[in-house]
Amino acid sequence: MPKEPFKLRLQRRFTFATDLLIPSRLRANAQQAIPFWIASLFVGLIAVGYTKLFGLAEDILHHLLAWHGWLIFLVTPFCFLLAWLVVVKLSPNAKGSGIPQVMAAIDLATPKHEDKIGRLLSLRIAAVKILSSFVMVLGGGAIGREGPTIQIAGSVFYIVHKWIPKTWARLSDQSFVLTGAAAGLAAAFNTPLGGIVFAVEELAKIHVRHFRTALFSAVIIAGLTAQGFLGPYLYLGYPEVTGLRFSIFLGVIATAIAAGLLGSLMCKAILVVMRWKRNFGTAKTVLFLLLSGLAVAAAAYFVHPAVLGSGKVLMNQLLFTSDKAAGWDTALLRVAGPIICFNTGAAGGVFAPSLAAGASIGGWLSSLFDVTGSNANLLILCGMVGFLTGVTRTPFTSAILVLEMTDRHSVIFHLMVAALVSNVAALLIDKHSLYERLKKGYVEDALKEETEPVAN
């Protein structure tokens, strides 16, 4: 009789010991929870590294332009082209935001199609996502890291789920991917409630009560890990919103309508450009990328540098300086930037750029209505909520995110009104969000492709 391998003997004895010493219910709960905790810890660490890398790219660009401003006409087209090449050559499904890919993976997380999830979530995709978005930011691309962080987190949770021993009690692929997305958003923005609400409002196709403890603990662990390295920071600090006039509600409604309509129109424009360039060959795509880079460079050099990057600098300027006014040209550039950059085919999200676009709309309307101080800050915050709602169609997530970013609980009702009004306004342009539209394409592509090994 052949001798039993040492590894198998050790595993069998360990299983026997745990079965003997630990009650079955407690053991099952631990086996379900431990993988979530491990994945959450990794997500928190990756989110911290990604945040620092993003900041490094923005600092390098800032110093480069301070040295010689004209270099932007060389750096931006080159970086746009390089960021696209990284995605095309290494992992095509790492392009864009990452949220549609996560939504598609959740839809595919069924016994019939679960083998296709690896085409949308993997360690290779996560690495390419980070590299491509870093290059885009280095070139001044109007992108954010929040959407990519969600796909990266979903990939980490999916891989950890695959590594769970077959003898362990486990939850579904859907629950792991969804929880990973929530943990990713919570760690990226330091907004735990926003992560949970986003998971329920945008991603959930199953009842979360079956894994709510895992969802909450994953968000807490990922968030605390990020805070351990970055500190208990607020994404946007503490803007002044005291002494508001009751009549400001009229401004809130007007800002919400404008921001919701423009957010939805931006998404519509992104999809129109995507359809237009769908059949481009390599030569036309390269030409489009170079011209896109030159367009962004020219806008930053000749009009306003606010078009560059995620827009966080612009948001801080509007909220925390006495200059609350933003010109119509700044608002237009912040809306146009993501349309151009998203269509490069490189990695990069639209969450933070949407907030910046909304802030610029709020600032412009503040100057138009001759509103200053706290009242102007409120319109800026409502513009952020409204524009993000127009893009994502998740009004409660948008309101909660901006609330947590600023810790301004006194204006929660203003933000919720802005979210609901902008959501209704956005429906006039399109009944579906940008993510929902893009998700369908990823699902269809995955179902068309034949099953083949996926690199992790």
From TrEMBL:
Main subcellular location: membrane
Transmembrane portions of the chain: 34-53, 65-87, 121-143, 176-201, 213-236, 248-274, 286-311, 368-391, 411-429
Membrane topology designation: Multi-pass membrane protein
Entry's Gene Ontology molecular function annotations: voltage-gated chloride channel activity
SUPFAM superfamilies listed in its UniProt record: Clc chloride channel
Record key words, sorted: Chloride, Ion transport, Membrane, Transmembrane, Transmembrane helix, Transport
Subcellular location: Membrane
Highest taxon of the lineage: Bacteria
The keyword Ion transport is assigned to this record: yes
Cellular compartments per GO CC: plasma membrane
One Pfam match: Voltage_CLC
Matching InterPro entries: Cl-channel_core, ClC
Annotated CDD domains: EriC_like (cd01034)
Gene3D superfamilies to which the protein is assigned, alphabetical: Clc chloride channel
Protein name: Chloride channel protein
